[in-house]
Amino acid sequence: MNAFTLAACAEMTYLDKPFLERVEAIAAHGLNVEIWDWTTKDLKALRATGVPVVSMTGYIEGDLTTDAGIARLLSTAEESLRAADTLDCPVLNFHGTGLGDGGIPVVANPNPTPPEWLRAADTCRRLAELGEKAGRVFTLENLNTALDHPGCPFAKASDTRALVAAVDHPNLRMNLDLYHAQIGEGDLVALTTESLPWIGELQVADVPGRAQPGTGEINYRFVAEAIAAAGYRGNVGMEAWATGDGAPETNGSTAVSDAALEAFVRTFTVILD
Predict the structure, then answer these.
(1) Which of 121, 175, 229, 263 makes the best surface tag, with the fewest CB within 10 Å?
(2) pLDDT band at residue 200, thresholds of 50, 70 and 90?
(3) Is 28 inside a domain boundary?
(4) Which residue is catalytic, options 21, 116, 141, 225?
């Protein structure tokens, strides 16, 4: 038996296919599916595929610290929970603030004040309580600020862990994204091991390029074996662009995506004794 359950993000692979066909292609590799913005999807048609959707974005707009942002975050989280009911999706992902075009934070705030930390923890607690009522888990994702999300508050994995640990609620967990963590913090095995009590899922992509494991500097096979030995038994999601050695316009194609998912499965198959 594999130490992990595996999933792939349908927003980043099989880009030459319509969305529902992407989902079915991912499932053909024995993987579950993750999605981003549920508001752009035909949820009933997605549920009818029979492919488990194990993670989705858990809000539409909002942030953790401003009055208007908190109200909007909680309101759209409730909308997202209703969408999660349609999909029977167990995990809803959120960030320190809403992200606009190109991943730029809607509310840039790279250095939150102590009162803002307290407000953020209280907002996370309220999300956890919404999740508890609905039987779902909200996961707070770390993001890198050096490249993809400059100015995002509560962005480091150490930040997300601090908030999740402060709330200490089973319906609030970390989405530990190792791509973002490699850029922002490094030392991935120690980071994952130290965060084990708080992790709701792991997401992976290589650096640079945010492509599938094996295309960059991270020794993901070493990471997979080490975190399995440390006791992680949850979901690992490939949130990565499927890329190959051909022309850029072929990236995301069926052949390239097939090879990317096969590499991901090989890397993160760690058989338990």
Answers:
(1) 229
(2) very high
(3) yes
(4) 141
